[in-house]
Every structure is written in structure tokens, then in C-alpha cells.
What we know:
Elements: H1 2-23, H2 30-59, H3 64-85, H4 104-133, H5 137-157, H6 159-164, H7 169-192, H8 194-224, H9 230-251
Amino acid sequence: MQMVLLTALGIGGATVIGALIGFCFKKISHNMNDIILAFAAGVMLAAAIIGLILPSLEYGGKFTLLVSVAGIFCGAFCLNLIDRLVPHLHKMTGVDQELHPEGSERLNKVLLFVMAIGIHNLPEGIAAGVGFGTGNTAEAMLIALGIALQNVPEGMVIIAPMLAAGISGGRTFAIALVTGLVEVVGTLVGYFAVSLSAAILPFALAFAGGTMLYVISDEMIPETHAHGAERGATYALLAGFCLMLAMSFYLE
């Protein structure tokens, strides 16, 4: 149990570490921000496919493809609904919409991006917790290490967009902290409810993958290609994808 707690805190803490690094690079140009966001899109794309959708196919059982496809579309549909609710969540950011009406659309995109990160952290944590709950400690540690390494760049790339959208440093860090705590909760849920989580894990993984694919296609790529840095953004996306691909290859 002690190892599970330490692992859960380590996974969640990796996001916080990434966030702290992100604060060191908060004053950047718009083009550089687009490149960083594109890099995050590449990381998320690889995480969605390699870390979530492919494992969903492996754990899906008899109706594996149906479960995974249903999870992907349900995740995308959920993000579509959340997209409509985002304007009602601005109070938690502390940004006055009346004073900054021109930043409303940008804030919407940033919040949707951050919420996708938070949503996908839950099944990732469950995946690590299931490994410990089933007694396969070596595999669980491998999964946890891969998740933690992925969370560092994820924590980094959510900081600059939130600060640029007008969210205060304190609230930005608090929001980043919450996304990390989601993963801690997921790890503990996976450990204490192995039978339940094993049953819902394929759908949950695909659901999280669908949320990430939605936000990458609907928000991140269009945003990074709208200000003249599309070439750099394209290569940054490929770099982020290849980084996660390399991590997955060497951690297997």
C-alpha cells in the first residue's frame, strides 16, 4: 500500500514539476506559444493512441473494437458538450470577461485544453492502480513511470497558455495542481476496485483518448496554425509525438 501511495503521489507530482518548469518560460512570444502548444498536441496525440486507445483494444475482451470505438466517440461528444459549458466556468479563473471581452474565445480554448488533460488523467491513474491491485508490481511500475514522464511536459505546456489568457499565476498553479490530483485519485481507485475498474477500463481508456483527439483536432491544431507559425508548429507536433513514441519504445 505504501508503494501505491508513493507511486500515486509521484505520478501526480510529475504534473506539478512540469508546471513549475512551465513558470520559468512564461514570458514567450505568440509564435513560440503556438509551437509549445503544438508540441503538447503531439504529446497528447501519442498519449491518446499509444497510451490509451491501443491499450483499450488490448483489454476490451469479446467486443473490444466496439467498446473502443464507442469510448472514443463518447469522449469526443463529452468534450463537445463541455465546450458549450466552458463559458460558464470562467469564474474559477478569476478573469473578468467584461474587462477582457477580446480574450473570451482564447480563454475558452485554453480551458477546454486543460480540461482534456484533467479528464484523460483519471483513466491513466486507474491503469496504474489496476496493475498494483492485480499484484503485477513490475508492470504497474513501468506504466506509472511512463505516465509520470508524460505528465512532465503536459504540466509544462498548460502554464503559458493559461497565463497568456489572463489567468493569475496562483490560479494557474492551482488548476495545474488539480489536474495532477486527478491522477492520484485515479491510481487509488484502480488499486481498491480492481474488479470494477478492470471491467470499465477499456471504455474509460478509449473515452479519454477520444477527449484528447477531439481537443487536438478542434482546438489545438487550428490555434497553432492561425498566426503564421504553422510550419514550426507542424514540426513541433511531430517532435512531441516522436518523444512519446520513444518513451513508449524504451519503456516496454
